[in-house]
Amino acid sequence: MDLSCSTSSSSLLVSLLVVLLLAGSSSQSPSVKKPSDLVSKICLRTANRDLCLKIFEADPRSATADIKGLVLIAIDALEASANQTLDTLGSLVNSTPASPLKDRFQTCVGNYNAVISNLETAKKVLLSPNYKSAFTPADNAQKNIQSCQTIFLLSPELTIPAELNDLAHKSLDLARIAGIILLDFLV
How many angstroms separate the CA atoms of 75 and 19, rounded? Predict the structure, then answer.
């Protein structure tokens, strides 16, 4: 009888371990996080859906963020991109001899300093009771990014370096994402 009791206990223990292992493996989160319904709705409205999903999936705050939190995430991503663009512009200014091209780079440095200033203002306003007016400084940031791009469009003889062009497009896409959230979702 002791042997059958021991065998029953062993079988029960093995069964319990198998159930626990299976339950544990099925409850593990997948490596790719599924976007929330709100993030999906926002990103469907953007021109660069992949970038939109990427910034929200990469930021752990997205999991519990309300609409204001999502705007802050978008603005933070834009600010990081604008700072990267500003660093690239600084390198280009320092490595380019005096020329119309260097003048354009210096003008863009001013534009991107204004972008960062506008984003700081947008974040402060977003956290205030008057949060709906955060659209204005965010929109001004987008206009400053576009101003830099326009400088090169109006001077076709001056070629914008590929790295700067890519960064500027990313910053503009991020500005549009923030703008869509502020204008269409933050009511």
Answer: 45
